[in-house]
Fold this sequence. Notes:
The protein is α/β, with parallel strands linked by helices and about 475 residues long. It folds into 2 domains: about 35-400, Alkaline Phosphatase, subunit A, CATH 3.40.720; about 405-485, Arylsulfatase, C-terminal domain (2-Layer Sandwich). The protein is built from 10 helices and 15 strands. The radius of gyration is 22 Å and the shape is globular.
Amino acid sequence: MHMSNYLMTIIAPLVGLSTLLLCGPADAAVPVGASARPNIILIVADDLGYGDLGSYGQLKVRTPVLDQLATEGIRFTDFYAGSTVCAPSRASLLTGLHSGHSPVRENPRWTSSGHPVDFSSGDHLFSEILHDAGYSTAIIGKWGMAEDKRVTELATNPAMPLQQGFDYFFGYKHHGDAHHYYWHGLYENNDIYLLDGNNYETNSGQYTHDLFTQKALEYIEGQQDEKPFLLYLAYTIPHMAITVPEDSKQPYLGLGWPERKMNTHGHYKHDPEGHTTFAGMISRMDRDIGRIKVLLEEKGIAENTLILFTSDNGHEYDKGFFDSNGPLRGMKRDLYEGGIRMPTIAWWPGTVPANTVSSHIGAFWDVLPTFCELGQLQTCPDSDGISFLPTLLGNNEDQQQHEFLYWEFNESQGPIQAVRSGDWKLVRFLGEPPELYDLVTDIGEQHDVAQQYPDIVRQLTTLLESARVEHPEFPLEWHPRVRPDTR
């Protein structure tokens, strides 16, 4: 467990707090100095690439709000997702465990049994920790941690948000449903929430992203000053299907862009033309984050609210026109940098130093211990993370560093593992020699230098092999459903 005493030594003096009460373990936490603790809004985009924002080099898609947040806060250059696909990435985010320790290490169907692995009552999420410390907690958007459809009694299902420390849930229960922006059946808490008139086959009805924004604004508006809140806003933009209301396409029409014809009849019900739609999706999300920022300012709580924005994994849509991965190699389902290094922005007016670019090496599993410190808990569940609160406060010299970061991933191309230690990155495919990259001189991972640095390869291989514990549903071997001729 990695923890520091930064909240007592720095946050408290900032807010004039004279004393901090001690709290015990997270499952019996005592709220301390509630008025001093910040509200937290964690916004997670879905399949947004490292290069999809203007502040990260995007030249075609307009993201003025997020670019402003980056200018007014911290833009992280070396912050990583929990995995390269949705479910395991979000599991790492919520539990503080990397994919060698997490209870969920793959998307739902990629298990040994073929059945999804969901959260259990023994898992400790940041939502539970902050809830027990006195926070109001909400998840709006994509959940995807209660995938087992054999479990039908939601009120007692330990994988549902309300049983994992959230006071309020609105959104998609299943990943597959979230592939459709005009899906008809969302959930509010443990109850189905039907959208009459929605038809995902024709992309008609109410665009669910807009509803998530509306619910987020209503949630923030309803919060009382005496109790801090956590809002986990799990947007689904720009995950496929590539579709958006026409008004968001208008700024991108008539620019001379080549058309990209989309398949409108497969699983994903895309709009007919992809490029203007994709750009419009990201700009719509950016616009709506601006609405949240304005509400915080109007309510007078912006200076006591941290917005942390990131993405769950690399891009999937782009084939080069948008340069969604920027200088990085790879995309979604890769453990090269383009699949796991994420655009990440922290905004907290008056606390997070403005106009800052941070090269601190962090990952999704750092979020839980950071939230523990923000919530003023002196103890926190064991995790693989290190709080990056010192970096948020501009105290870089006191920021602890990871010895290494670890990922594993296993779908149709077979098991892949990766480890980053300092500036070195090792990638290993099952049965193949490890690849080694120097991320300082070769951020695009174009030059495998494993032959030149055998000692580094041995050191990182030792880290890689010691980083995981076995899980019967997630062995590092070929899945039975993968055809031998595709291996």
